[in-house]
């Protein structure tokens, strides 16, 4: 019986792995086409491993991280690619991607969960989509959560997201130098970013440095 249950669990995970990767590829094509979504998930997985999360939790976190920005599919593309600073109204619109992402994942989970039960995976994905722009000091969005009220998975993805964003060229900025990226992470540690997560980047910096061809 245990073998059958284990086999079923493995099959469900494999199905969701394909499903989440397809959704991530859709979002990536729509938003960046630079690999950002996958790099964030890869870095979140490394951070989870360094922090001692168990294997199943780490794998769920990795897949859930792929959908951290999926809500941006509902944001006008010209806004996503705007090279100039966003107006107040545009920032409010952009911030809605966290709520939209959570809603999309909830709809997908309701369609699939009875046939392919994996409630923790969808729970992580919803938490990450909604809360990965929350700040430790309460200045983030959409809920203004403070410190450990922010789900751990979202705090991990926040660091992974900032780490890749700083090292990436965008329409509104150039890629930062690696030394400047580390200095910025240290500056944000304990303010907007969870210091315990940032610590693992500082302990193993070369594992998180972008390699350019």
Q: What fraction, in percent, of the residue positions are helical?
A: 55-70%
Tell me, what's the shape?
A: globular
Structural class: mainly alpha
* Proportion of residues in β-strands: under 5%
Radius of gyration: 17 Å
The number of distinct helices, counting runs of at least 4 residues, comes to 10
User: How far apart are the termini?
Assistant: 50 Å
Q: What's the pLDDT, averaged over the residues?
A: 90
- Annotation, overall tally of beta strands: 0
Features:
single chain, 213 residues, mainly alpha, 62% helix
Question: Could you characterize what this model shows?
Answer:
The protein has ten helices and no strands. By secondary structure, it is mainly alpha-helical. The longest helix has 30 residues, at 2-31. The chain is globular. Residues 1-8 have low confidence and may be disordered.
What secondary-structure arrangement, pairings included, does this model have?
Elements: H1 2-31, H2 36-50, H3 55-65, H4 77-80, H5 88-95, H6 97-112, H7 119-131, H8 152-167, H9 178-188, H10 195-203
Helix pairs in contact: 2-3, 2-8, 3-7, 6-7, 7-8, 9-10
Please outline what is shown here.
The chain has helices at 2-31, 36-50, 55-65, 77-80, 88-95, 97-112, 119-131, 152-167, 178-188, 195-203. The protein is an all-alpha fold and 213 residues long.
């Amino acid at each position: 019986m245990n073998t059958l249950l284990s086999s079923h669990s493995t099959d469900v995970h494999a199905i969701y792995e394909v499903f989440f990767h397809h959704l991530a590829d859709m979002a990536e094509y729509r938003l960046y086409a630079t690999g950002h979504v996958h790099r964030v998930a890869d870095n979140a997985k490394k951070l989870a491993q360094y922090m001692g999360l168990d294997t199943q939790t780490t794998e769920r976190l990795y897949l859930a991280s792929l959908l951290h920005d999926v809500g941006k599919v509902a944001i006008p593309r010209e806004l996503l690619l705007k090279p100039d600073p966003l107006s107040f109204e545009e920032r409010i619109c952009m911030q809605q991607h966290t709520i939209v992402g959570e809603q999309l994942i909830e709809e997908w989970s309701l369609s699939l969960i009875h046939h392919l039960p994996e409630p923790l995976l969808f729970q992580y994905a919803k938490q990450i989509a909604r809360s990965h722009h929350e700040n430790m000091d309460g200045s983030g969005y959409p809920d203004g959560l403070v410190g450990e009220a922010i789900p751990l998975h979202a705090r991990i993805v926040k660091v992974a997201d900032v780490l890749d964003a700083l090292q990436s060229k965008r329409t509104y900025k150039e890629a930062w130098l690696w030394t400047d990226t580390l200095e910025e992470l240290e500056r944000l540690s304990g303010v907007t970013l969870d210091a315990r997560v940032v610590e693992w980047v500082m302990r193993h910096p070369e594992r998180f440095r972008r390699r350019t061809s």
